[in-house]
Every structure is written in structure tokens, then in C-alpha cells.
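User: I've been trying to design a sequence by hand for this structure and keep getting stuck. Would you show me what you'd pick, starting by listing the structure so we're on the same page?

Assistant: Good idea, let's start from the same input. This is the structure you sent:
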């Protein structure tokens, strides 16, 4: 778990620096940084989505995934949990939920998260997670400067997500097929495209309701490509 622990620590440090800047930046600069993050998120999402080997896997992952997420009301349940968290810590930040969700998705949707879990789960040195830690720490500064303290609290789902993946790999005791990883990354890219659209305030999409697609994609890849 060393890689995940270091990753969480760098996000905490980066977030604290960003929060310090957030309270001192003029509103126009904060909005400019916010827009820049939205544009970068779109770019990252498109570059990840293009990793797919079969476009139909993307379609038949994201559509039923969105339907399942809507039926389960994932976004609504998550928002309620975040509101309780805000109350528990007496947080009054306007963009707390947005910052937490945006940071978590940006930190966890990339292929480095999956491959890093495989690397550490198989007992290898956590090189990928250490590299990811540096990148996430820098990103946390920018995100929290624009969105505030919610980014700091993203370390909670970040830790459980990465630690969970690492434990699963350790239990399975084997690496993942690169095709499955690519399809999972591609679906994560679509989710980031939706996040970028939200950040740029083009249209509000219930991003968290798309998360079941991350389970459907590797299953489809395993059944039809493996």
C-alpha cells in the first residue's frame, strides 16, 4: 500500500497549498483556472477514450452503465453522503461537492491507477503510483486553487478506490490483459469528457451515474475480445 499512501499524502500537501492560494486569488483568476482545468479534462478524456479497440464496447458499456447508475441513484446517494460530511466537519464551501467529485475522477480514471494497482498488488515496487503521486500533487494544487477544500477530501475515495484495486489484484495474483485495461481506460475517458463538460458549464451531466460502465466494459472485453 506504500504507493497509495504516498499518493494520498501528495494530494493532501498539494490541496493545502491550493487552498492557501484559493483564499487569495481574485475571482477572475479563479474562474480562469477553473476553465483551464475544464479544457484539460476534455483533452484528457478524448485521449483516453481513443484507446478503445472496439467502439461498440464503449457504446454498450456507457449506455447500460448510465441506466444502471440512474436506477441506483448513485449521484444522489453520493451527494447525500457528501452533505453529511460537510455537516460533520462544518464546511461551508460552495463548490465542496464539485471539488471532491472532480478531483476523485481526475485522480482515479486514468490507466496509471489501474496499472499501478497491478504493479503494487503483484508485489513489485510501486513505481507507477509514485510517478502518479507527483502528477496528482501538482494537479491538486491547481484543482484546489480553483475549487477549494473539496479537493482535499477527495483523498478519502481515492484511498479506498486504489487500495481496493490493489487488494483485488493481490487476491487474484495475476496481471490484467492489456486489452481489458485499454477498454476500462477508454470508458474512464468518456466519464472525464462528461466531467469536462460539467466544469465548463456547457451542460450538467450526472457523472457518477456513469460509473457502472467501468464494471461493464472489462466484462464485455473479456467475453468478446479476450
Amino acid at each position: 500500500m506504500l504507493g497509495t499512501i504516498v499518493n494520498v499524502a501528495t494530494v493532501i500537501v498539494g490541496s493545502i497549498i491550493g487552498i492557501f492560494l484559493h483564499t487569495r486569488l481574485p475571482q477572475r483568476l479563479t474562474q480562469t483556472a477553473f476553465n483551464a482545468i475544464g479544457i484539460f479534462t476534455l483533452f484528457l478524456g478524448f485521449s483516453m477514450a481513443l484507446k478503445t479497440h472496439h467502439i461498440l464496447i464503449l457504446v454498450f458499456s456507457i449506455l447500460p452503465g448510465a441506466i444502471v447508475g440512474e436506477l441506483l441513484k448513485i449521484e444522489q446517494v453520493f451527494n447525500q453522503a457528501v452533505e453529511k460530511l460537510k455537516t460533520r466537519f462544518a464546511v461551508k464551501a460552495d463548490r465542496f461537492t464539485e471539488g471532491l467529485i472532480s478531483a476523485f475522477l481526475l485522480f482515479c480514471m486514468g490507466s496509471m491507477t489501474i496499472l499501478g494497482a497491478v504493479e503494487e498488488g503483484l508485489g513489485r515496487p510501486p513505481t507507477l503510483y509514485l510517478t502518479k503521486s507527483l502528477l496528482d500533487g501538482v494537479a491538486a494544487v491547481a484543482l484546489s486553487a480553483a475549487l477549494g477544500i473539496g479537493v482535499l477530501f477527495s483523498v478519502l475515495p481515492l484511498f479506498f478506490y486504489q487500495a481496493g484495486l490493489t487488494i483485488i489484484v493481490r487476491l487474484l495474483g495475476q496481471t490484467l490483459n492489456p486489452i481489458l485495461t485499454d477498454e476500462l481506460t477508454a470508458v474512464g475517458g468518456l466519464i472525464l469528457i462528461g466531467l469536462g463538460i460539467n466544469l465548463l458549464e456547457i451542460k450538467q451531466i450526472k457523472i457518477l451515474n456513469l460509473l457502472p460502465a467501468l464494471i461493464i466494459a472489462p466484462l464485455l472485453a473479456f467475453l468478446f475480445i479476450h
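That's my pick for every position. To get oriented when you compare it with your attempt: The chain has a mean pLDDT of 90. The chain has one domain: 2-224.
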